[in-house]
Write a structure and sequence with these properties.
The structure holds two protein chains of two kinds. Chain A is an all-alpha fold. Chain A is built from twelve helices and two strands. Among the domains of chain B are: 148 residues, P-loop containing nucleotide triphosphate hydrolases (Rossmann fold); 64 residues, 2-Layer Sandwich (Alpha-Beta Plaits), CATH 3.30.70.100. Helix content of chain B is 33%, strand content 30%. Chain B has a six-stranded mixed sheet, sandwiched between helices. In chain B, strands 11-12-10-13 form a four-stranded antiparallel sheet, covered by helices on one side. The two termini of chain B are 34 Å apart. Classes of the chains: A mainly alpha, B alpha/beta. Chains A and B meet through helix 1 and helix 5 of A and helix 2, strand 5 and helix 3 of B.
């Protein structure tokens, strides 16, 4: 048994096969990549137009708002790259692909997540990274080691939170027939809300997109700490330090919902 | 056989589905439908079992419970000594499944890549799976299309690939759900010949559902007929044919057109083609033999060629259902 391949070998093989499939159609891949650059630019144009008409957005300076935009977009595009395709679940349910997953010696969710890796999303990540590079020097005045760690960690925690939202939205499909629209409002709606300072939202929405759908944790709350600004009513900026915890919690809930969904699918009750 | 290990053991296996129907504008009624209702099933290591029944009789649902995809509503099932749902991942290492209607391969990759990924999924060291892969490639004649993307394969090629994929990890039990559906005669025969070899060499246990009597004849020594979620027959194929009194058909090609061959004892003329060049006579194997019928025909016409057709699965199943009072 000493020569048994390592436990991660199945996943590297699955992801490797996905990369292979994408590079096999290089022209198509490049087009997809540019399309995603386009999506990123359109999103940027939207916030840019708003910022040319107002010097502050939700009590944040223009550079602060761009920092929020960039962090949210990096997190979301990375989550979309790694797990966004879990929203194919309804197709997989109809085609019986999930049954095929269940006949293999790996967890079904791990197979669903590794069933694709959408490198084309890097187009959107790239746009957001450029915005981040431009906005950060102006937005962040006093650098401390804690801020450096926070800035490096936020894209990771943001991606983790959005990934958890994707998994939850996918798991909801076990109950909803053709509930893709509702699931999208959860993920894409959360991404949209996360791209702007949560202070522009009315209080009920602000609470919703912080404590129910934890979108504000992906960018706005860490950004408040980076620019050293107090938060609006209901959202003190120290909440930003809880982001890693929120990411872990979101994944915990996502896994519970997924498990309940699988139990429903196999008919084990629930 | 009875002394060998039990690979499948099901007791009073039941699976209900809730069907919701519209009843009026807002009201919906719930109906509970039992797809499988009280199946007892023992399959010993090394057996080859054909599982037949009408569409919706409960075949696929049973297979899904045996392989850990569905949880039984009631009753128990153990496959390879394991609880299929709780120990699903362990079971997956010992069972190979081919669903004729869906694919276990990666459609956008060359066929050979699917085997590499599958070997990795099962965490097979290369010195274990490489010889097995070579063996399967040779015996299923996959060489010429190993480099072809799966989506470009013909159905026959893809099915051979699917079967090889299901056998790469050397499962003890191979489950085939409609493996020959849509295949041409030659592809069917090639696949059956391979499965016979696989059984002979590795004593792989076989459970297959099919609509093709040829699959049962060539592959299975035991037949199970499922009706309304329960086992209606468990025994040999000749026993089943005898029980339902299904008739065989002697097809004769004649040297020149002959008047319809009616009135031969214990036969019924069921078809005349080509103005009398080809004629079909059905007979019950209980009452007469193909040789006797042929002798009677030869007295009246010059027979150039002949074939004996077996009753098809649908016909046998229909007769069995009718006999059991439905």
């Amino acid at each position: 048994m000493a020569d048994l391949p390592p436990a991660w070998a199945p996943y590297t093989a699955l992801l490797g096969s996905r990369l292979h499939a994408q590079t096999a159609y290089r022209a198509g891949f490049v087009m997809d990549l540019f399309a995603n650059v386009g999506i990123g630019l359109l999103e940027f144009v939207e916030i840019y137009v708003i910022l040319t008409h107002t010097s502050t957005l939700g009590a944040m300076s223009a550079s602060g708002a761009l920092l929020v935009f960039a962090l949210a977009n990096i997190g979301f595009s990375l989550a979309d790259l790694a797990v966004g395709h879990v929203d194919n679940l309804p197709t997989y349910l109809r085609a019986g692909t999930l049954d095929t997953f269940l006949l293999r010696p790996l967890p079904a969710l791990a197979q669903l997540v590794t069933s694709d890796v959408a490198l084309k999303r890097l187009g959107r990540t790239g746009v957001a990274l450029i915005v981040l590079a431009v906005a950060t020097p102006t937005a962040v005045a006093h650098w401390t080691p804690a801020k450096v760690v926070l800035l490096a960690l936020t894209p990771v925690t943001g991606a983790a939170i959005f990934s958890a939202l994707f998994v939850m939205a996918a798991a909801m499909q076990f109950w909803l027939v053709d509930g893709g629209e509702l699931a999208n409002s959860f993920t894409y709606g959360g991404s949209y809300a996360a791209s702007y300072p949560a202070s522009v939202l009315h209080l009920p929405l602000r609470v919703l997109f912080t404590f129910v759908v934890p979108a504000a944790f992906t960018a706005y709350l860490p950004a408040l700490l980076l620019v050293e600004q107090p938060g609006p009513a209901g959202l003190p900026s120290w909440l930003g330090w809880l982001t890693p915890l929120v990411a872990v919690l979101a994944w915990g809930i996502a896994l519970l919902v997924w498990r309940a969904g699988m139990r429903r699918y196999t008919g084990a009750g629930g | 056989m009875s002394s060998s290990e039990l690979l499948v053991q099901a007791r009073s296996l039941q699976r209900d589905f809730v069907v919701r129907r519209r009843a009026g504008r807002l009201r919906r009624t719930r109906h509970v439908v039992s797809a499988v209702a009280g199946v007892d099933l023992d399959i010993h290591a090394g057996e080859a079992v054909g599982y037949i029944g009408a569409n919706g009789a409960g075949k696929s649902t049973t297979i899904k419970m045996l392989t850990g995809i569905l949880v039984p509503t009631a009753g128990t099932v153990r496959t390879c000594g394991l609880d299929p749902v709780r120990e699903r991942r362990n079971l997956a290492r010992q069972v190979g499944v081919v669903f004729g209607q869906r694919s276990g391969l990666w459609w956008d990759l060359p066929l050979v890549e699917s085997f590499r990924v599958l070997a990795a999924l099962h965490r097979l060291p290369s010195h274990t799976w490489a010889p097995r892969f070579d063996e399967l490639v040779e015996r299923l004649e996959l060489t010429s299309f190993l480099a072809t993307p799966v989506r470009q394969l013909s159905l026959g090629q893809r099915m051979r690939g699917e079967v090889a994929a299901a056998l790469l990890h050397r499962p003890r039990l191979l489950v085939l759900d409609e493996p020959t559906v849509g295949l041409d005669v030659l592809s069917k025969e090639r696949l059956r010949a391979f499965l016979r070899e696989e059984r002979a060499e590795r004593a792989t246990t076989l459970l297959l559902t099919t609509h093709d009597m040829g699959d049962i004849q060539r592959l299975c020594e035991r037949v199970l007929v499922v009706d309304h979620g329960a086992i209606a027959y468990d025994g040999t194929l000749p026993g089943l044919v005898a029980r339902v009194g299904a008739e065989r058909v002697l097809v004769v090609d004649l040297a020149e057109p002959v008047a319809p061959l009616g009135g031969i004892t214990h036969t019924q003329l069921v078809g005349v083609e080509g103005g009398g060049l080809r004629q079909r006579l059905s007979f019950s194997p209980d009452l007469t033999t193909a040789a006797q019928v042929l002798a009677a025909v030869s007295q009246r016409a010059d027979v150039r060629d002949l074939a004996v057709e077996e009753p098809d699965v649908e016909e046998v199943v229909r007769r069995l259902y009718a006999a059991s009072g439905r």
